[in-house]
């Protein structure tokens, strides 16, 4: 059960982060300028929500690091994932449900040279939406679930990987006399190989 919860949290974070990174490069909105009906301007996710790509890259890093961190950092990473999910979810939901002019402001300014939200609102004739904002909103829900699952179960996850346990075992003093290899290993770890010997 502990291993399943850990694996589920990590996989869900990686899926949510990868979805967000991919979504940032895809067209979210298409905006038509009034009086110009020849073509519409595509608005990628990175322009509609400018923090999308960096935050989703951070989520990928959290998911990758979650498999090796200790108990305290599990809580920190779980809380960070939840906060990122709430921030991105709020910003994405505004686009999904209201399609604000502010989301297309950067692209319209670049195409027309006109700045200012009020001026751009007068230029915009129509804004249509693709499926990517809804997909990203779903990814935010998945990320929030992963964060909550990490916070709820992280204390019961295994303490470390096999290599960590092997290193801990290697630090335990061996019973009985030490051979030459054991002595060299002890010296490499800064231990006194004669500390356990009885005086004659």
TrEMBL record:
Keyword Nucleotidyltransferase recorded: no
Location of region: Disordered: 168-200
UniProt-recorded name of the protein: Trp biosynthesis-associated membrane protein
Membrane as UniProt keyword: yes
Upper lineage: Bacteria, Bacillati, Actinomycetota, Actinomycetes, Micrococcales
Positions of transmembrane segments: 47-69, 76-97, 131-155
Keywords for the protein's UniProt record, in alphabetical order: Membrane, Transmembrane, Transmembrane helix
